[in-house]
Specification:
about 280 residues, 9 helices, seven-stranded mixed beta sheet, 7 strands, single chain
């Protein structure tokens, strides 16, 4: 039996606490939604049924004419929609032709399971678009806590998924035409407490099951270590790496990869022409 990495109850509680003031801390998800909108704009087809998976405040605007189901692990964000964890979705197979998820897949206990359930809920040739905080994010915060409690360091930040592993997961659960890429967002902070306020406000603080209490002494030492990383203007540039995922529910109409050995021109001939 698998043991959860994240505390599901704590995660729901943090999301409910963040809901009222979320608009003041939504910049990271807004960047994700902008990236998703850019990718969606390149798709020349219509969508009728949309799942907004991890809906937060419902800021995602579905394509014109599409009906949308909002789903979130937190009751306050899910109000008027469906409350469910991403790896425990209740939707029937073949329900949606577009599934969008921004800002939640990095806090899911069973990510392969969540992706598989999302794919299952999609109609053939349905589109999946997602974004989440990936590997390489929050390096200054990580370094500050490491300096504050070097031996033994406590688990203060969540494990992070790199873009290659994310793309491999799309393939593993059966998405067709998978694409994974990453974009970087750098944000300047005057001190550690402003960063932590943003993380609390976007429901992105530590919800690991094995998390340790944060003492005042550790917090003060981390604040000093964080301040020591400031640029000449007195601000610390913290980095968020946003991983974007694109995949399609399989359908016979989709293009297929060429069969190995089926090329009609050889590499040797091509190189010979280039060098001639």
């Amino acid at each position: 039996m698998d043991i959860d990495i994240f505390d599901r109850a704590a995660r729901r509680l943090r999301r409910d606490r963040a809901a009222a003031g979320y608009a003041a801390h939504d910049f990271l998800r807004a960047a994700m939604l902008d990236g998703i909108a850019d990718r969606l704009a390149t798709v020349k087809r219509s969508f009728g049924s949309v799942l907004d998976l991890g809906c937060f405040d419902g800021a995602f605007a579905p394509p014109p004419g599409a009906g949308v189901v909002r789903c979130d692990a937190g009751a306050a964000f899910a109000r008027g929609g469906v409350q469910a964890d991403e790896d425990r979705l209740p939707f029937a197979a073949g329900t949606f032709d577009l599934v969008v998820s921004a800002g939640v897949l990095d806090q899911v206990n069973d990510l392969p399971g969540a992706l598989a359930l999302a794919r299952r809920s999609m109609k053939p040739d349905g589109l999946f678009l997602a974004a989440f905080v990936g590997a390489g994010s929050l390096p200054k915060l990580r370094a500050a806590f490491r300096a504050a409690e070097p031996e033994p360091p406590a688990a203060r930040l969540h494990p992070q998924i790199d873009v290659r592993s994310a793309g491999d997961l799309l393939v593993r659960v059966g998405f067709a035409l998978p694409v994974a890429d990453v974009e970087t967002l750098d944000v300047g902070y005057p001190d550690l407490f402003r960063l932590l306020a943003d993380l609390r406000g976007m429901a992105a603080t530590n919800v690991l099951r094995q998390r340790a209490p944060l003492t005042r002494g550790t917090l003060a030492a981390a604040a000093d270590a964080f301040a020591a990383l400031a640029d000449a203007d007195g601000r610390v540039r913290e980095r968020f790496q946003i991983v974007f995922l694109t995949g399609w529910a399989p359908d016979p109409s989709q293009p297929k990869a060429a069969r190995p050995g089926s090329a009609t021109a050889s590499l040797a001939n091509a190189l010979g022409k280039a060098n001639g």
